[in-house]
Amino acid sequence: MASLFATFPAWTILIGTILVSCLLTYLAFKILRSLFTTEELEKFKEVTGIYVSMIGILYGVFLAFIVIAIWENYDAVKNNIDKEADALGNLYRDAKGLPPGTKYSIDSCVRKYVTYVIESEWKMMANNKESKDAMDARNKLQNLIIKIKPHDLGEQVIYSEMISNLNDLTVARRIRVNTANAGLPMILWVILFGGGLLLLFYIACFYVENYKFHLWLAFGVSGLIAILLFVAMQLNYPFVGTDGLKPDAFISLRKHNVQVDTTVMKPTAGDAIK
Question: Under DSSP, is residue 82 helix (H, G, I), strand (E, B) or coil?
Fold first, then answer.
């Protein structure tokens, strides 16, 4: 599914999902009307109505739960990106209180890390990869900070803050990389799509005297299910596709706080690691 969103624009996938859902609804009506006569459907419409209501409620609750869970995960990923950028900005500012040599080295590592994340790693995450250059920049930044020897109380305070921000950066980066393509288990997608298809068949079983009116009502239900499934699929892979998360927090950091290091070379495809 991730490759689908990486290949086609989101709006085309949405339209396609709705059209497929409506087509399945139409086929369900045709199949069931060929298997059962109008008299049979009318005779058992009360029983059918009970089952339609029961399945509709169960499926609606399950679908709503999945969408909310995916949205919460999407929002958590976005907040984690902000935390990573904030930690970098804090490290860049804290380094100003250190001796010039150490300050310049830390500033350079921060600039390189931000540049590699924006220009290289963000695209790699759609393929469940991360940039080796970004990792190297973070590791070098860690080595520089750990080796700092505070000479007075002021530098000791700065050093403590930098260690804290370094830990925040490490945790935030690990979460970002690990959740790049950590979607729902396949069994849940099978239940979502299978349950939606089952609900459409039960709706088709319910008897309404006006066939066309009944069909258009069913199209409305199937269209809504398709939209909710699309939202779940779109949010399930936050870094994939044209509407995926963008490195706005890092771009803002580079624009307002961290100047671009023109000596940073753009990494090649061989720098990527899984």
Answer: helix
